[in-house]
Amino acid sequence: MRIAIFRYEDWEKKLLEEELQGHDITFFEKGLTKDELPQENDFEVVIVFVDSEVTEEIISHFPKLSLIATRSTGFDHIDFQAAKNKEVKIAYVPAYGEETVAEFAFALLLTLSRKIYQSYNRVRETGSFELTGLRGFDLNRKTLGVIGTGKIGRNVIQIAKGFDMNVIAYDPYPNAEAAEKLGFVYKTLEEVLKESDIVTLHVPYMESTHHLLNDKTFALMKDGAYLVNTSRGAIVDTEALARALKSGKIAGAGLDVLEEEGAIKDELNLLAEGHPEEHNLKTILTNHVLIDLPNVIVTPHNAFNTAEALQRITQTTIDNIKNFTEGKEFCEVK
User: How confident is the model over 21-59, as pLDDT tens digits?
Assistant: First the structure.
């Protein structure tokens, strides 16, 4: 089959060439967009990442297209209906980073609990080994509230048990088997927020989870509780979090995601092209306030980014293509 891959790293190219021998593969350095459509249009499979907007126009550009393989869990960058209308299948990567993201959540938590950043920064910037202000707290025997007990949430619970933490959890669809196996208890969202020393978020972003943590729900939490978010930024009302941190209601936060992180990463474009209507300036400014707070750790949506996780993404994509071409079951968006 003729296969096109858009935006790749050298190690991916080598792996794809090795694993998909016998297929005609063309590599494109940039993502697939309507402004940079390749002149060649006889590809039967295109491999994309989330930076490619696969619209109806783009799908129509490839008359022989039969499979779009995205190297991601999300697939909202692909026009599903347009693909369906043209009988083009969509393959995705349903899971690749459950251990990876869970480990990162604990990296953020330990950075907060043991003041690792402040300790490192003090030695690096001043050469001082003074311990004043660097006293942390043990995770042992603390209560961890896990919001969302999918694959990532369950991996977080496994790690927490290694610290001998008490784990309680909320999920609209409780997994009784996992609760028994891992030794945690399901409670209502209100109970989890009220009883937890640390709350960690592992739910998808959707209408029902938009601003799940807000002024009202922050008020339920213990005074001096901590928050970790490695899921999606808009699950937390940024302004409400800033108020909770300022008042001391929340003692600290570890955030790998922010509501308007896309805008923060792309401020030069904002200056050059103006401010898109969908971005809330006040939220962006509040995010900058969060970044400057000493009790907040902000990282650039990096929880997924390990060599092993990226290897799993590429290998799953390869397996999807192999199974598709052989008429076998693959990870298909339906």
Answer: 999 999 999 989 888 899 999 999 999 988 788 999 999
The reply to whether 232 belongs to the active site is yes
Q: What is the dihedral of CA 200, 198, 165, 108, to 10 degrees?
A: 60
Are residues 12 and 138 both part of a single domain?
A: no
Q: Among the options 7, 71, 232, 312, which is catalytic?
A: 232
pTM of the model: 0.83
Mean predicted confidence (pLDDT) in 67-73: 92
What CATH number is given to the structural domain containing 8? 3.40.50.720
Q: Which of 99, 239, 260, 261 is catalytic?
A: 261
For residues 280 and 145, membership in a common domain is answered with: yes
CA-based end-to-end distance of the chain? 23
- Higher-pLDDT residue of 134 and 271 is 134
Residue 261 a catalytic site member: yes
- Catalytic annotation on 301? yes
Residue count (the chain) = 334
Tell me the residue range of the domain where 25 lies: 2-96+308-325
